[in-house]
Amino acid sequence: MVLLFDPAPPSLQWCKVHGGKLSGGTYEFGHQSDELVRDHIGGLEAVRTVGYVLHHGGEEIDRPVSLMTRDSLKSLERCMRFQPEYNEVTLKAAEFWMSRLPDVRHLLLCDTAYFAKLPPEASDYAVPGKLREDGIRRYGGFGLCHQWAWEHSELFLGHSVRRVISVYLGDHSNVAAIADGSPVDTTIGFTPVEGILSSGGCGDIDPTIVFELHSTGMSLREITRVLSRESGFTGLLGRECGFTDITPGWDEPAISAVREVLCHSLKKSIGAFLSVLGGVDAVVFLCEDPPQSMRLITALCHSLEFLGADRRPAPEKQGGVWNMVHDRSNVPILCLTYDKWKIIAEAAHNFTLKER
Questions:
Q1: pLDDT digits over 220-242, tens only?
Q2: Active site residues
Q3: What strands lie across the sheet with 182-186, from one edge to the other?
Q4: What domains can be seen in the chain, in order of their start residue?
């Protein structure tokens, strides 16, 4: 049995993988953690592997999956400056379960590590060297997702696929450019606030806006809250709004306006990465509910017709993959179902196989 944890401050999400089946839930992290989880999984005796998702590993963690040791905990402590509300939950969970289950395998699954070796032209910000030495750079994110997208597009299309644009659609939509399995650029920067607008995040803005807001009397804490939690879809619509709120409502002008801003931002990023890659062999969309998001994906596909992407009137589902274009198209466009726990479980399983 494999037990997986993903921080969702102030809570902790968990998933049990047993006999090919996944089940899970959410609980408030505290002194009764093992009892709460034990009640759901029927005891801890069958657990052989425990995995922890780290949302931001900074420059400390450069492997997507690694074996957890006591030294790893020290590395986690040094990552606290990055997304501290998430990383702190991961650290506390790892400390707790490593002490409760000392004789099983513990794995760290880092969501920024896939982008650890971004080329300097993509990772470096144009800031003084001292700041770059202090870790001010682009770190990316959703690495486990984009690595999985690359691997599965290669499985579906064959090894001739070398240049892939991976597009995750959700509350934190983002894009990655991948060449021969290695990322060469991404829209997520120092944190996920940079890049594509999200459910509550502003995405790319002029940084001097921060100084303008501060000059009006807003504290840095207030500015952080506004730009990371009250902007994006929520800020444009004027009420709390997630990705699933903007995929329907095509006849509602306010929601359509939010969706148009998102699509415009995605199109710009996809176009930029086409140039960075010098062309593309496949575009892969990932989302939790492809049928619900299909109209938005179709609209994005329409913008790629200049590449010779001949859209199907209705996407063709082959296994778990939606083929968005005819086989005669110059560029394949696929849509995959994003299942966080399956992706994490697969990464943990593949690592375990390699270690044997």
A1: 999 999 999 999 999 999 999 99
A2: 111
A3: 182-186, 174-179, 163-168, 282-287, 333-337, 321-325, 311-318
A4: 2-110 (3.30.420.40), 143-340 (3.30.420.40)
